[in-house]
């Protein structure tokens, strides 16, 4: 069976229309003000090594799905850190350190955020302590260590690593750089989200086509909220916004369903490690609750297949290295196109210009190689 016949069978596990939808630019920019977005762009675009990441046309996929354009923002090329997270944590480190050299930065991470914080600290010559759970791979740990951060592994899950990070930071007076916001902790996550909005600023100058739909992966919702702020600030027309999560970690979907921020229980960690989160960040929730049109969830099973399709040039002219968290947009789009009613409800047709965020490359090379091998065997 050809891969084209195989992808025709792809399905979402859930799709939820947001009954409370009502996008308002001013509301979004109230939580991430224009000045914050501007400062993030001004600072980061002056860092050594800054360049726009490629906006690649998935021309083979758009032809298969009979869609005008499918764009893929390739964040594997971001500052050599291989994910969009390079724009967030590192920027927050620079802002909160205020040129002081005698401070210690700390953070808990599933991988990419900590790598960004460690890089940001190294750039400024600051000491850095990164807390990781037992689920973070050795490969991700080693990448963080290469940036001269001290890595502390904590038994249990992400929440345990965060708890330990906060405890030690309080005791030792370290600065904490998290991307998750709560009632008493908003400014640092706002900085990280402002950093992420740069992806959208870049897209606004990389194509003159109006984006009609954007697919945004969510863990704690920081990337999605940063992108939505970018849309409110830089796009002339507001596209339909679709958030995608792993079925085992659908905290955004659950919150949209209940109409309030809802914590979920993760029964099994997703292979999409950066997105395996149980609660949406507070500021992200305020931004997303009326801005999202649809929430969808996917299973882990098609992740290797999507990785292989990108790498084997089945979707585009160019080979694309997309890691596990880059797969959801592709899986989500294909699955929606297989569901006639949903496709119609979302107005996806031959005039659509879809934007997918390829949010990471082979940031965990070991896992990437393993998934690629499985994917090639399954889909090709
Ligand atoms: C590669 C990648 N994509 C997406 C996400 C999800 O981002 P957020 O937690 O801001 O929603 C993460 C989070 O770590 C990630 O590492």
**Widest β-sheet, arrangement of strands:** 1-10-9-8-11-3-2
How many DSSP helices?
17
CATH class of the largest domain, anyone? Alpha Beta
Structural class comes to alpha/beta
H/E element sequence: HEHHEHEHEHEHEHEHHEHEHHEHHHEH
Number of spatially distinct domains: 2
Bound molecules: pyridoxal-5'-phosphate
CATH topology of the largest domain: Rossmann fold
Low-pLDDT parts are: none
Shape: globular
Distance from first to last alpha carbon: 9 Å
Beta-strand content estimate: 5-15%
CATH architecture of the largest domain: 3-Layer(aba) Sandwich
Keywords:
single chain; 380 residues; alpha/beta; Rossmann fold; 2 domains; 7-stranded mixed sheet; 11 strands; globular; binds pyridoxal-5'-phosphate
Report a brief summary of the structure.
This protein is α/β, with parallel strands linked by helices and 380 residues long.
């Amino acid at each position: 069976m050809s891969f084209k016949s195989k992808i025709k069978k792809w399905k979402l596990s859930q799709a939820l229309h947001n009954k409370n939808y009502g996008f308002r630019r001013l509301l979004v920019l109230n939580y991430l003000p224009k000045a914050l977005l501007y400062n993030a762009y001004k600072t980061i675009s002056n860092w050594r090594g800054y360049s726009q990441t490629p906006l690649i046309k998935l021309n083979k996929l758009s032809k298969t799905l009979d869609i005008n354009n499918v764009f893929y923002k390739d964040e594997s090329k971001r500052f050599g850190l291989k994910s969009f997270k390079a724009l967030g944590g590192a920027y927050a480190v620079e802002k909160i350190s205020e040129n002081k050299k005698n401070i210690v930065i700390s953070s808990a991470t599933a991988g990419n955020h900590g790598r960004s914080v460690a890089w940001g600290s190294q750039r400024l010559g600051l000491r850095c302590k990164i807390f990781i759970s037992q689920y973070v791979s050795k490969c991700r740990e080693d990448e963080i260590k290469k940036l001269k951060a001290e890595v502390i592994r904590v038994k249990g899950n992400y929440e345990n690593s965060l708890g330990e990070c906060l405890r030690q930071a309080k005791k030792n007076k370290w600065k904490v750089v998290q991307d998750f916001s709560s009632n008493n902790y908003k400014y640092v996550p706002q900085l990280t989200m402002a950093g992420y909005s740069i992806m959208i600023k870049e897209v606004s100058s990389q194509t003159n086509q109006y984006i009609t739909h954007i697919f945004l992966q969510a863990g704690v919702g920081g990337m999605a909220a940063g992108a939505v702020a970018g849309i409110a600030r830089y796009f002339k027309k507001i596209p339909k916004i679709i958030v995608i999560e792993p079925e085992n970690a659908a905290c955004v979907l659950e919150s949209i369903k209940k109409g309030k921020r809802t914590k979920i229980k993760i029964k099994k960690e997703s292979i999409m490690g950066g997105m395996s989160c149980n609660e949406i960040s507070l500021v992200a929730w305020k931004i997303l609750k009326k801005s999202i049109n649809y929430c969808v969830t996917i299973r882990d099973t098609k992740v290797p297949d999507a990785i292989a399709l990108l790498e084997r040039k089945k979707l585009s002219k160019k080979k694309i290295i997309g890691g596990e968290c880059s797969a959801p947009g592709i899986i989500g789009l294909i699955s929606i196109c297989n569901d006639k009613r949903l496709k119609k409800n979302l107005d996806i047709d031959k005039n659509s210009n879809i934007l997918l965020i390829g949010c990471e490359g082979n940031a965990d090379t070991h896992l990437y190689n393993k998934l690629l091998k499985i994917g090639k065997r399954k889909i090709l």
